[in-house]
Amino acid sequence: MLLKRLLPLLLVVIFGCSSNMTEVFANSNKDELKNYSERKVPQTLHIKYDYDDLYHFLNITEKEYKDEWKSGKTIAEMAEARDIYPQQLILYLAEKRFEALDTALQNKEIDEYFYYDYAISYMRNDILEFINRNPNKY
């Protein structure tokens, strides 16, 4: 009998608290969502590699690189011929891309959302495309 009388009161308390929690959660994220909606879009990042640094990493001269490139070799193939594992090449290029991302973020050319989105969603494919393409390849 007592439970029948307390049940409506308990439901009000439970639902009342849960709606307050939701409201607090929504309010605590309001500023973050506002910042997200005010983003500068679209944002792009242009990576310019230091080819002298790449030649050094590949242990190759500029002339050798250009000759092999003209013959149709990809950067991945050039690295493989010099016993550089694909993962080493990818990590080297990822480090260079993170340096570019850090600089762009610091200079406010991109925002943190672009930074993380690019790092999580696009960087790997961009690197793989870069090391495996060669328009001279037949």
Describe the overall structure.
This protein is an all-alpha fold. The chain has 2 domains: 1-38; 51-132, no CATH class. 74% of the residues lie in helices and 0% in strands. It has 6 helices and no strands.
Shape: elongated
Measure the end-to-end span.
Answer: 86 Å
Which value, in Å, is the CA radius of gyration?
A: 27 Å
Extract low-pLDDT stretches. 9-15, 18-25
Mean pLDDT: 80
Query: How many β-strands, per DSSP?
Result: 0
Gist?
By secondary structure, this protein is an all-alpha fold. The protein has helices spanning 2-37, 51-58, 62-70, 75-81, 86-106, 112-132. α5 (86-106) packs antiparallel against α6 (112-132).
SSE topology sketch:
Blueprint: H1 2-37, H2 51-58, H3 62-70, H4 75-81, H5 86-106, H6 112-132
Helix pairs in contact: 5-6
Main features:
mainly alpha, 138 residues, 6 helices
